[in-house]
Write a structure and sequence with these properties.
5-stranded antiparallel sheet; two-stranded antiparallel ribbon; binds 6-diazenyl-5-OXO-L-norleucine
Length: 315
Amino acid sequence: MMHFLRALHERFQGLEDGEVARYIPELAEADPERFGVSVVTVDGRVFEVGDTDAVFSLQSISKPLVYGLALETCPAETIRRRVGVEPTGDPYNSIVKLDVAGRPHNPLINPGAIAVTDLIRGPGPDDRIAQILERLGRYAGRPLGVDQAVFASERETGHRNRAIAHLLRQFGRFDGPMDESLDLYFKQCAVAVTARDLATIGATLAHAGVNPVTQTRALHERHVGPVLSLMLSCGMYDYSGQWAYRVGLPAKSGVGGGICVVVPGQMGIGVYSPRLDARGNSVRGVAAVEAMSRHYCLHVFGRDRSCASLEEALR
Ligand code: DON
C-alpha cells in the first residue's frame, strides 16, 4: 500500500489545474501546493503520504455527518418533511429549486444542509455547536474545533446562504433562530481537520459507524446505509453521477479541498489538495481517488478479481 500511495502522490503532485476557492476570503489563503493522502483501515491501521497533517476546513464534508446527527436526534418524520434524498445535478449553492413537496432535494446541497443544521437544537448557540463538535470528534477520534478565521470570513460574506435560509423560512423548512442557525452552519463548515481525520471519518463509516481506532460509536448502524447512499448519489456536487459511475464509492468533498471517501467494510480514504475544479471538487483529490479505485477495483458494484488485490496490499 505504501508503495502505491507514494507513486500516486508523485504522479498527481504535478497536476496544477484548478483554483483555490476564493468566495470565502479566508480559503484563498490556502497553500495550493499542499497534497496529502491518508488511508485508515477498518482494523485501525494508517497508511499515508504527503501533507496529511496540514489543517483545512471541513466545509461540505460536515453535511452528511450533521445529517447523521439529525437522524439520531430528531423524529424521522421531522427530517422527511424538511429535506428529500434525491440528487439534483445542480451546483451546491443553487438557490431556488425545491422538489414537488417544497423541500430541498437532499441534505448535501446548501439548502438541504442549512435546513438540517437548523434542526440541531439546544438551549443556545454554544450548546448547539458543542453537540456537533462532540459528534464529529467521535468520527475523527480526537477533539475537533472551529477555525475562527474561516468562520468569521464566511459569516461576513455568506449572503447567498443567508438568502437560502430566508427562502427556506418562507417555504416552512427553517423555523429555528435565523442568525443562530446560520452561524451554526458556518461553524460546522469551519471545523478544522487534516487528511488523516478525513480518512478516520471515512473508516468509521466503512466500519458500521464505529471508529476503528478508538472503538467509539459515531453513528447508529441503521443510519450508516442511508448516509452512505446519499454520499454515493449526491456527495460530489454536480459531478456525483460521473463519480458514482467511474469511482463507485460513497464520498463527500468540500471547498476547503478535502475529500472523504468510504470503502465499505474496508477503509476510509482522506485526501487534501486545495485546488478545485469548476464544480468545487479537489482536482488532485478526484484524480487520486479515481486512480486508486481503478487500481484496487474498489467500485462497490464492480468487483473484478483480476485486478490488484486490496487484501494483499493491506497485509
Ligand atoms: O456554504 C458554503 O458555501 C460552504 N461553507 C461550503 C460549501 C462546500 O464545501 C460545497 N458544498 N457542497
